[in-house]
Amino acid sequence: MDTRGELVNGFDYDLQTWVKGYIIQKCGHPAPDRNGFFCTCNARKYAGHDIRAIKKQLSQATNPEPEPAGFVCVCENCGDISREDQPVNLCGPCAAVAGRERIK
Ligand SMILES: [Zn+2]
Ligand SMILES: [Zn+2]
Fold first, then answer.
1. Nearest ligand, CA of residue 15?
2. How far is the CA of 66 from the centre of ligand 2 (A)?
3. What is the pLDDT tens value at each position of the chain, 104 positions in all?
4. Can you tell me the distance from the alpha carbon of 46 to that of 36, in angstroms, rounded to the nearest whole number?
5. Which of 3, 13, 91, 94 has the least C-beta neighbours within 10 A?
6. What is the pTM (predicted TM-score) of this model?
C-alpha cells in the first residue's frame, strides 16, 4: 500500500486481480481455450491499466456524483432554472431588472 492506501503491489480483492506498480497484471486463465471460452475476468479486461484509474472509473459508475446542495428554482418571469442556496421566485437578472428583492 502507498500512503493513500492504494495498492501498489499485490492482490486486489475488489477486482480480483494482481497488481504490480499500480498496473493490473494479466490473469493466468488460458484464453481462448479449445471450446472458445474466453475469460472475462477483471484481470483480462483491465490488464495493463493503472488500478487507480480503473477504481475511480468503477466507483463513478456505481456512485454517481451526488446532487449539489441547494434548491432548484424556476424564475417566475423568464422560466430560467437556477440552483440557489434558498428558494427564490426570480432569477438574478430578472430580480435586478424588476428592481426589487427576490421574494424568498
Ligand atoms: Zn481471466
Ligand atoms: Zn428570470
1. 1
2. 26
3. 777 788 899 999 999 999 999 999 998 887 676 677 778 889 999 999 999 999 998 888 877 777 777 889 999 999 999 888 889 999 988 888 877 655 55
4. 20
5. 3
6. 0.53
